[in-house]
Amino acid sequence: MVWYDEAKYIQDQAKLNNQFFRDSLPMIASENVLSPMCKELLISDFHGRYAEGTPGNRYYEGCEFFDNVERKGIDLAKKLFDCSYADIRPTAGTTANMAILKALIKPGETATVLDLANGAHISFGKWGAAAVRGINLVSYPFNDKEMNIDVDGAVKLIKKVKPTLALNGRSVFLFPSPIREIAEAAHDVGAYLVYDAAHVLGLIAGKQFQDPLREGADVMSGSTHKTFPGPQGGMIVSNHKGETKEDQSFLNRLNFGVFPGVTSSYHLHHVAAKAVALAEHLEYGEAYAKQIIANAQHLGQALHDQGFDVFGENLGFTKSHQILLSVGKGKGREAAKTLEQAGIVTNMNTIPGDTDPLNPSGLRLGTPELTRIGMKKEEMKDVASFYDRVLHKKEDPKKVREDVKRFRADFQEIQYCFKKGFRGYDYHSLI
């Protein structure tokens, strides 16, 4: 028992973390909480097993029941996204992107991307997965007023550089991307369009955002723990059906990109929890996505009414789960730290014009988790008032934190999920 105290320390830190988030307003746009049924799958025996390969074609024995799970999960994903191909093996959204890049583009070839300073995700940036693959990246022009890709400029760029891939990956995702126009230009020069839906996967599945596969995207990746409230992980979907040799080659390359490309075994307990989350989203996803977006739009208006500089005012602030604030040149880090002291958890973020990602001028706010615990439009005014008290009125964050805790006490139950047929767990129980 020499090292018991160290193990107990780790357990205590997990309990403190649970307590902190139970009493706070979690507003990181890329975070969410699991349903009780999903949690159960994470502590099932699947967690320690291996299943390299595909259902019915494994490198290990003992996979009969997991094969059933994976087959069911694939079927649920195809139904949810109305697509013909789904792979739920990737262990993260970035892993899914890496698999696609390995499958569809060679080192030295060109891909068009959104610049990191304009809200792109790092996996499509010069320091992320695209760099690991050795891709030549060329950035789309950006419309600061509309917080979106400059569609005319993007089309001209694609026609000029003739990329292998036209990538659409975004970490700040206020409004739908102009996929139809970009896809048409990409296909004209023989390129594939890749849509990274990491942040908006649940909104797309809930039919409340855009529909990339119907708008021309050849393949869509996503994270399964943001607006789609499953376990941390990733997935890939496509409407290519494999009916021609070229089409079948495309799907074979995607499969090979995932395994053996960027995964060995792939966290079977997470795959099982993904499958449950897919079923829950088929049941509740539309209502959940609607409420996420309504909450974000009302939060944007409430913050604007409090005098905050909220991006996208002329377009209704947002059509997603995100709000982007400008809080002063280089003051994003300080603002995020002060809000955390008040029990409001968000993140600093670059805004158009920023050049230093470590000292940005903005904050990115998200509503998925607040919505998941039952908050609606009326509560967004209260949330905005906490921001006003901390950042404008400069009240003592510790005093505000007590009020945040009292406010949060009424919102402790997870919504938009199955509530029967499992061993129930407390909201933030240690399992």
Oligomer: single chain
How many DSSP E strands? 17
- Which structural class fits the helix and strand makeup? alpha/beta
In which order are the strands of the major sheet placed?
A: 4-12-11-10-9-5-6
Strand content: 15-25%
- Give the overall average pLDDT: 94
Helix content: 40-55%
Report the top-level CATH class of the domain at 38-277: Alpha Beta
The gyration radius over C-alpha positions equals: 22 Å
- Span between termini: 22 Å
CATH homologous superfamily descriptor of the domain at 38-277: Type I PLP-dependent aspartate aminotransferase-like (Major domain)
Largest pleated sheet: 7 strands, mixed
Shape: globular
Q: Segments where pLDDT lies below 50 for 5+ residues?
A: 424-431
Q: Helix count, per DSSP?
A: 15
What is the second-level CATH architecture of the domain at 38-277?
Answer: 3-Layer(aba) Sandwich
CATH topology of the domain at 38-277: Aspartate Aminotransferase, domain 2
